[in-house]
Design goal:
Helices cover 65% and strands 2% of the residues. By secondary structure, it is mostly helical. It has a single domain (3-207), classed as Alpha Horseshoe (Serine Threonine Protein Phosphatase 5, Tetratricopeptide repeat).
Length: 212
């Protein structure tokens, strides 16, 4: 089972649709602990990405991801632009020249992407950031691959782990980003970055469920 470059294109479009659909929800999550613009920023960034996809319609997967990353850096405001941009640029490096991805390829790509986010944001597990969704997702993907799971099952388990990580941010006190300025008052709120990260990985699991 593998992920074709067309399925990668489908995933990016699905992410854009998810960000548009959840724009208000992300804003509601961001308003008490951030600038209240995460939903609008992510929606704007991925709509810009979709407008660039026709230019890479025949490109390899790494080139698609590079276009996504560079577009997000230039169009998404706040911390999300550099972080998500770095995520996709690292995916690009890991998938350069590839026209399809097997599970092992996606494990390596996601590891590179998550590593880039950690390096860029200097955040770890428990800091109440997108990393709290991404690290469990990566760990679950690795475990599924090691157990010999099929690609769709591994992706689903990864997305489910991201969801649990996202929900796990609710009681946390933020130690990074704008939310950290609130101290104890940041507890009781779901992190918007972890939420958008879950949306991204959920879209991958749903879009790539039929990978043959």
């Amino acid at each position: 089972m593998s992920i074709s470059r067309d399925l990668v294109d489908d995933w990016i479009r699905a992410v854009a649709s998810a960000m548009a659909l959840n724009k208000d929800h992300l804003t509601q999550l961001d308003s008490p602990i951030g600038d209240g613009d995460h939903g609008a920023n992510m929606d704007r960034g991925f709509q810009a990405v979709v407008s660039k996809l026709p230019a890479v319609v025949a490109a390899d997967i790494g080139s698609i991801f590079k276009t996504v990353g560079m577009t997000l850096v230039s169009t998404v405001g706040g911390a999300a632009g550099p972080l998500y941009g770095t995520f996709f640029l690292q995916l690009a490096t890991a998938t350069a020249g590839k026209t399809e991805l097997h599970l092992s390829d996606w494990v390596a790509a996601l590891q590179a992407g998550v590593g880039g986010v950690i390096m860029r944001g200097k955040a770890g597990l428990g800091d109440k950031t997108m990393v709290d969704a991404l690290i469990p997702a990566l760990d679950a993907l690795k475990a599924a691959a090691a157990d010999g799971a099929s690609l769709p099952i591994a992706l689903r388990q990864s997305a489910e782990a991201a969801e649990q990580g996202m929900l796990g941010t609710i009681p946390l006190v933020a130690r990074k980003g704008r939310a950290s300025y609130l101290g104890e008052r940041s507890a009781g709120h779901q992190d918007p970055g972890a939420t958008s990260s879950h949306l991204l990985l959920k879209a991958a699991a749903e879009t790539w469920a039929s990978a043959a």
